[in-house]
């Protein structure tokens, strides 16, 4: 808006409207800018960093558990893999607000409407949606890139399924 106009007066005919972004319409519990004590939306790079850390942790669990089980009960390795894949993220998200990778980055997963933690059921649905998208050609890549253009919440598709957002604690 033109600085020479009196406050509260709209621009004249033909003037461009003031720029209003979807970020100006966030719920009150999310701050559009970093402020002490307030949560802001996690950016894409922060989310990727947390994902890579979690991928390393899950790999360590799968390999370590698989090696231990191969000596004792090789038949249950498949059960171990399924258990890790279905429990790691949803349990951590429901109990602590996020996976170890997110928590290490100062992030948490919350309900987009009110900021409350996800229940185990909602966290499990979010994770299953993530796995389905991840193992579907092209959709996995689209899911990871979706926050780059999503407004106002910068959500992945698996976040949209359950109405969750990833925020950084202020």
From TrEMBL:
It comes from the Bacteria. This is RDD family protein. It is a multi-pass membrane protein. Residues 1-34 are annotated as: Disordered. The chain crosses the membrane at residues 48-69, 75-98. Residues 8-19 have a biased composition (Pro residues). It is found in: Cell membrane. It comes from Streptomyces millisiae. Keywords: Cell membrane, Membrane, Transmembrane, Transmembrane helix. Coiled coil: none annotated. The lineage of its organism: Bacteria, Bacillati, Actinomycetota, Actinomycetes, Kitasatosporales. Residues 42-162 form the RDD domain. Signal peptide: none annotated. The keyword Disulfide bond does not apply. The keyword Calcium does not apply. It holds the Pfam family RDD.
